[in-house]
Design goal:
Elements (H helix, E strand, L loop, with lengths): L1 E5 L9 H13 L3 E8 H6 L4 H19 L5 E6 L2 H14 L4 E5 L4 H20 L6 E5 L21 H14 L29 H7 L6 H14 L4 H4 L12 H6 L4 H12 L9 H21 L22 H8 L6 H13 L4 H14 L4 H11 L5 H12 L14 H8 L4 H6 L14 H8 L12 H13 L1
Parallel strand pairs: 1-2, 1-4, 2-3, 4-5
Length: 481
Amino acid sequence: MQLIWYRNDLRTYDHTGLSQAVAKANELKQGIVAVFVFTQKQWQQQQMAEIKLALIKARVMRLQQELADLNIPLVVHNCDTYQQSAEWVADFCQTQQVSHCHITHDYELNETKRDEYLAQLLTNTCNASIQNCCEIIANHDNLIMPPGSVVKNDGEPYQVFTPFKKQWLRQLQNNLPNSHAKPKVQTDNQLTFDRFYYPYSVPSETLDQLKCWTDIEDDVINQLRGFCREQIQDYADKRDFPIAKCTSRLSPYFALGVLSPRQALNRIVLEHQEQVFSNDTGPGVWLSELIWREFYKHLTAYYPDISKGKSVKAQYQNIQWNTDRTVFDAWCNGQTGFPIVDAAMRQLNELGWMHNRLRMIVASFLIKDLHINWRWGEDYFMQKLIDGDYAANNGGWQWCASTGHDAAPYFRIFNPTTQGERFDAKGAFIKMYCPELKDIPEKWIHKPHEYAEKYRVAIDYPKPIVDHKNAREITLALYKG
């Protein structure tokens, strides 16, 4: 029997393991089965957001039907930890006489240990009984370029993005990858299973959030096509303006593997040809964002300490951070008195998603205005984001904290007021999420309390929680040690 163990690769299109399993099943005259294992306790320990867990559940249920349409059963199991999931899969392989177990690589430490444990369990079984041998076939399906393929001449990984990107593009132009088609219906697959266990009950407020997102694979692909045809040309010029709605909003589907980066790459190349390889076009800038995603995943694969919450730059490991939970809570709840920060945090809390420019603004504010440990912000994002991805989230936070690979220098400190004036000049986004500021004139929207004082108007909005100029000086002193 051929087995596909689904994890962060919840799709039927462009799935190497699924395509390989179908080919081998036909070659060896075997059946095919897929499995998915919920590990809710493990995910909670890793700060997974309720909305992401809800999307996983919805997507797994949908995938079960999509695979059933191909005559491939999807068995769903539930346990607490990754270790238990590996034990269950290994037992399934033995009892069902699986000859090949197809998996897609994950790169974080806990996930890597899970797969190493599975390999050891299957090796032990094979050593005990040659009739029960099962071979793992692992694919780098959630990246375009696997770790180890984009390195310096001496074989060392790049730690700066720009040379990584140049080498990545150089290799891509020499070898554009192909996407796998969805397999045909497996008319000879006679396997049946009756284990359909969904352990997770989704809270009603999370279901409301989930209405903004789809769990249908074809809808995701159509969203990609629509973005590439109608919005991507404006991406370079408008991507930093949250009110413009010019981003793809595909990040949750990359995080769950409903969409592969190969599919995205092939779509933009098909639509825009050589523009994709230019730094100043919409398609080229969007591809650059995909390359940042690859950069952070490569680094996570190379450096296990990234998965342990350590600063990449050791000199910043022991900064004496502010531990005032009241201040942190004000940031979490969008009550800092800085309109662009508060609107962004309220967007996160309401949608389970935040515009990328806003992620940088609120992260810089937490770290360099409030002097709170970047790890607190990193965890809060993971607890809220539907597109929570450890490598990308950690990379972004360490970039803002100036502690990571190719991070912003410690003296680069965003001014939250001028950031708001630059990227939400008329305050349209702010007023969308801070309705108490709806009557503030555009001229004053980024300094509402100055307006209130000047015109003796009462507003129900918190005063700024910190003086940015003073906070900047404190930041410089903290990082200088």
